[in-house]
Write a structure and sequence with these properties.
The complex is a heterodimer of chains A (140) and B (147). Chain A has 140 residues and is of the alpha+beta class. Chain A has helices at 24-33, 39-42, 44-49, 59-73, and strands spanning 18-22, 78-86, 94-106, 111-119, 125-134. Chain A has a domain at 6-22 and 56-134: Hotdog Thioesterase (Thiol Ester Dehydrase, Chain A), CATH 3.10.129. In chain A, strands 1-3-4-5-2 form a five-stranded antiparallel sheet. In chain A, strand 4 (111-119) and strand 5 form a beta hairpin. Chain B has a domain at 7-22 and 65-146: Hotdog Thioesterase (Thiol Ester Dehydrase, Chain A), CATH 3.10.129.10. Chain B has three helices and five strands, in the order E-H-H-H-E-E-E-E. Chain B has a five-stranded antiparallel sheet with strand order 1-3-4-5-2, with no helix packed on it. In chain B, a hairpin with a 5-residue loop joins strand 4 (118-130) and strand 5 (136-146). The chains are: A alpha+beta (140), B mainly beta (147). The A-B interface holds A 1, 20, 26, 29-30, 33-36, 58-61, 63-65, 67-68, 71-72, 75-76, 78-86, 129, 136 and B 29-30, 32-41, 46, 50-51, 58-60, 63-64, 66, 83-92, 143. Strand 2 of chain A pairs antiparallel with strand 2 of chain B.
Amino acid sequence: MKTLYFEEVEEGDELPPIDLLLTKDFVRTYAKTAGMDFPRFTDDEGARQEGLPGMIAPGVLSMGLLARLIGEWNQAAQITRIGTTFRSPVLPDCHIHLLGFVTQKDAEQHTAECDIWMENDEGERWVIGTATVVLPTRNS
Amino acid sequence: MALEFDRSILGQVFDETDFPPVEKADLLQFADALGETNPLYTDEAVAANGPYSGLVAAPTYVTRLRPKKMTPEHMPRFGKVGFDGGRDVEIFAPVRPGDRLKMVSTIHDIYEKTGRSGSMYFIVLRNEITNQDGQKIAIVDHRIMQR
């Protein structure tokens, strides 16, 4: 298991980015798995009838992907808080980039704060957020 | 000027939902749908030797729990259209296979923000999730934006 200890993490460390093509099938599968298979998340025509330009990804899918970003950086990081703001609808069949970095460490709690976000190829931040993680220590 | 509404609705429980036992297959399927690679959520054998001594749910699994009533019967309306503004999740303990989860939903907060495009109103629905032992699992705050 990929483990980064508290002592090895520095403020300013970048989380290895995840770049992926967010396909409509990926979004549909998530929506069905999460019990959110509403037209706006599964079908372009149904979404247009709701006044949207086409089907969109559920906000909680973006949040889940940002949690995955943290897990791929450090599989032993235990997320105790994650907050996300959905700034813009996420339209699938596009490339997305999940990025983040460590903003602060707390030596007493063995925690790290991270800024995390999802952006498109143009660098527009569609989803922004922060997370708190508890990290293992060499001494425990 | 402060936003005017009946403040007695804050904190009032509008839904209590008991969920059937969490199935291992459901946790694995959820992790797979996110493309998760962390073995704590995807690989029972590796997870058995991990910090939780067993498979647990991916962190945002709690956001897939849907209350019987998604919104209060008399949901306040301040704008013409509503958007999903965001989520804040606080996690206290992992969800494990076999857990029987309970969710209690309230209106936690209502506030107004003024931006370049005018006033926006936020209604925060809070879902508090506990397990069969009464252990607090998570608090999920859902920010609904109206304009």
